[in-house]
């Protein structure tokens, strides 16, 4: 029986050999170059040197293909759980290593998806479930450990705090046009996240 992968409620056959990875890699490149709105199955087929029929046998929609691609992309890996012993160290490691905010590919992919995420329900759902969820799980562990270590005060809204760093970096990158450098990340951590984590304990 051929290998299959779940797509919605149906089972769709995988592309044989290493061709599936090649198609997904090509999709990530096209998303970064053209954006989601301008991406077409034809463009991916051309970039991957594959037939459009091959793409549709495996992925029934553009949203399925794109989310599958960015979820498995070599340049956008799900970060390993980090435990440096401090909230500051964990956030620096998570944000500044491969797949973090200073990596070109994840930010290019995000730029290519932003205009479509708020109005394409299928893309938004798949993006949250397959791309964001595993990354948020790592972030949540970091903040849960910080709470146990006593680095975050009892009166702090931890859910809101955990969203603050990515929100500020994404705002700088895509609204203000400011490159997410390590220096910017350190400024946000030291002047926003850590003081906020102390809550009413802050002097």
TrEMBL record:
| Presence of keyword Transcription regulation | yes
One Pfam family, short name: TetR_C_11
Query: What are the transmembrane regions?
Result: none
Molecular function (GO) terms for this protein are:
DNA-binding transcription factor activity; transcription cis-regulatory region binding
Q: Tell whether Transcription is among the UniProt keywords.
A: yes
**Protein name per the record:** TetR family transcriptional regulator
Keyword field? DNA-binding, Transcription, Transcription regulation
User: What is the protein's species of origin?
Assistant: Kribbella voronezhensis
**Signal peptide stretch:** none
Which SUPFAM superfamilies does the protein's record reference?
Answer: Homeodomain-like, Tetracyclin repressor-like, C-terminal domain
* Span of domain HTH tetR-type: 17-77
DNA-binding region(s) from the entry: 40-59
